[in-house]
Design a protein that fits this description.
Helices cover 9% and strands 55% of the residues. By secondary structure, the protein is mainly beta. The chain has one domain. The chain has a 14-stranded antiparallel beta barrel. The longest helix has 18 residues. The N terminus is likely disordered.
């Protein structure tokens, strides 16, 4: 009990420090990134038993039997010619509460001021600083339909405030969104699981524009041996934007995969790909306490686009997870 109290205090101390820092908006699909999921190529649709399943397919929470805390943080600035740039901020916190004989409840959030990135030179006359502050919340529930079929759902909401200068007072409400997700994980054979997850988010902008994003994720989790795990995902994203009477539609398809190998009972290494972008990771610890590291190479230009000259390439994340 004392250990539980100390860990909860430590988590909220980190939250307090994060609240005091500034950040900007990253695309919503990256707001859930943690070190393990990044190293695994975000191929989490059919993965079970990890608190970070909350953000990808909540059905994966169903077999968690103990209280869990997990938190991730971006480690350092991007390398490059310019030094006054911020790193990607996508720092999710997950709290998982198993309910005796009644499923599993999960609460997740991205801390205010810790959702975003800053990829322009600050105070540059040609490309002035542009930033957004945001926060996001998830409320999830998971359980079993049959001994071989897990289900899960979450409600997700977010809000962003934007500014285009270094004037901290000049803040305007930029975007507010709300939506939900339903997912399942079906065990086909021991060590072979199939996952499906459908999410829909509706967002409104301050200028009257609207946006609807639908995501369909399908994936497989394969464990041929206890010390090796392969996961693969396909993701289809449909985006509909509304501006007055004008409606624009677009579709994007992605493929992600990852593999993790336990080289000792206390050491796990990972490699993966996010839509072709290489990732890697490492975990150290035991079942009850783990430290994770993950990185993705050459992924930032894909996230922020090619419209600006000062692009920084890599993402570096660290996280911890504790089970009681």
């Amino acid at each position: 009990m004392k250990l539980l109290s100390i860990s909860i205090l430590f988590t909220f101390l980190l939250i307090g420090l994060s609240l005091a820092s500034s950040g900007n908006q990253s695309p919503p699909q990256y707001s859930q990134l943690s070190a393990r999921t990044l190293g695994l190529g975000t191929a989490m649709t059919a993965v079970s038993g990890d608190e970070q399943c909350l953000f990808f397919n909540p059905a994966g929470l169903a077999n968690i039997r103990r209280f869990r805390i997990g938190q991730s943080h971006s480690l350092r600035h991007f390398p490059g010619d310019k030094i006054n740039l911020d790193q990607l901020d996508a720092d999710p916190v997950a709290l998982i509460y198993p309910l005796k004989f009644a499923g599993v409840f999960g609460a997740g959030f991205v801390i205010q001021g810790e959702l975003g990135y800053d990829y322009l030179v600050r105070n540059d006359t040609d490309f002035p600083r542009r930033s957004l502050h945001g926060t996001e919340r998830y409320d999830a529930y998971a359980g079993y339909i049959t001994p071989w079929t897990k289900f899960g759902m979450y409600h997700r909401s977010n809000i962003f405030h934007g500014k285009t200068t270094d004037d901290e007072i000049d803040l305007t409400a930029e975007k507010q969104g709300e939506g939900g997700c339903f997912g399942i994980i079906q065990t086909i054979l021991p060590g072979l699981d199939y996952g499906y997850c459908s999410e829909k988010m509706d967002s409104d902008y301050i200028d009257g524009k609207g946006e609807t994003v639908k995501r369909i994720r399908t994936g497989w989790s394969i464990k041929p041996l206890p010390w090796i795990h392969y996961a693969t995902d396909k993701e289809k994203i449909k985006i509909k934007t509304r501006n007055g009477g004008v409606i624009d539609k677009s579709t994007e398809n992605r493929k992600n995969w990852g593999i993790e190998i336990a080289i000792t009972p206390w050491t796990i290494v990972r490699w993966g790909r996010i839509n072709g972008k290489p990732t890697s990771g490492l975990s150290l610890g035991c079942k009850r306490f783990m430290l994770h590291y993950g990185e993705a190479k050459d992924i930032m230009p894909w996230i922020v686009g090619d419209d600006y000259p000062d692009k920084f390439k890599d993402i570096h994340l660290a996280s911890y997870s504790i089970e009681f």
